[in-house]
Amino acid sequence: MGFLDLFVVALMPVLKVLLITALGLFLAIDRVDLLGPNARHHLNNLVFYVFSPALVVSNLAETITLDELVTLWFMPVNILLSFIVGTLLAWILIKITRTPKHLQGLVIGCCSAGNLGNLLLIIVPAVCEESNSPFGDSTTCSTYGEAYVSLSMAVGAIYIWTYVYTVMRAYANMGIEEDDTNVSTINITSGSHTEPLLPSTQDYSKQVDLPRTTLAKKHKVPILGNIVCCLKNFAGKIDMKKAFAPSTVAAIVGFLIGTVSPIRKAMIGDSAPLRVIYSCTSLLGDALIPSMTLIVGANLLRGLKKSGVGVSVIMGIIAVRYIFLPLLGIGIVKAAYHFGMVGSDSLYQFVLYLQYALPPAMNVGVITQLFGSGEGESSVIMLWTYVVAALSLTLWSTLYMWLLE
């Protein structure tokens, strides 16, 4: 298949995303107001608590067996690597652009966490349904593709609500503490008398200065001890309720149904006695893709109304997510295939590649709302990164299919 044919195959699903996203944006404008703040809130709850878990359960239960589970072990590792590499690139970006402290957590979140859920759920099945798809039979391709994406979505949710949530909360707290410090140092002026809120440095003039070497010896801690202490502090800040989101619980249930033979026989198959439960769950899951895409479009409306983030930061995030991460992702996946960590399934490799080329996760915006820090800036970043994603995803999808053909 020629490069142009692959480009057309890759372009079709991205156009579907753009059209539905544009519809969501239109429905959210004030004159229409069908997807206003209240409607988005209720639809988002349906997606989060009903549609998304239903799709994850139905896809994993149908396709994931013990043998499949063994072959897919590298996907959680691949997603974790994408988060780690994105974080390192975000640190470099922060240093180069001198990002304000209250926005550093947002930059790390946008660079590390990709949209591992709804975009993949649209792109992968749509690529499979194209007549010129390089991944074989469309039905089999769609079934296994949705299973791979469901696993990706569940693992991504765990990482976002443990790693990214903890990092962004730490930076939000640092921003609050910095603001409090700035406020507390303001002098109170009454007539001609000025008095600082903080105690005078003269109060500490009687303290005895210890030699630096003595203090260094006293507080010297082994490097391993520091690492263990940092890991304990990080683990202590993880909100386990957030980590076990409905999609994560649904993934566990889907694994149990798919891998435990008696349960699988009772629910999966044309002659299964409980097949109606599986059919209803699958039907609910089908509503996820259009609903989530409409929400993405509606949320982007805020980006048209907000400002306050530097152009250099936006351009840096775009460069990280659409240039450096995908290039490094090719090297990581190819190395994993070379060392036998990834099988020869081209569709599976395609999903692994795509995990490095996605725009920032929409949950990053949700986290900024929870902490009340960088909400307007996140809307602007989401707007421009998703606009650029239309071209970027098409080009990278084309290149990935060409590499795998």
TrEMBL record:
It is a multi-pass membrane protein. One of its GO terms (cellular component) is endoplasmic reticulum membrane. One of its GO terms (biological process) is auxin-activated signaling pathway. It is found in: Endoplasmic reticulum membrane. It holds the Pfam family Mem_trans. Belongs to the auxin efflux carrier (TC 2.A.69.2) family. It comes from the Eukaryota. The chain crosses the membrane at residues 6-29, 73-94, 106-127, 147-166, 276-301, 313-333, 353-371, 383-403. Keywords: Auxin signaling pathway, Endoplasmic reticulum, Membrane, Transmembrane, Transmembrane helix, Transport. This is Mem_trans domain-containing protein. Involved in cellular auxin homeostasis by regulating auxin metabolism. Regulates intracellular auxin accumulation at the endoplasmic reticulum and thus auxin availability for nuclear auxin signaling. It comes from Cephalotus follicularis (Albany pitcher plant).
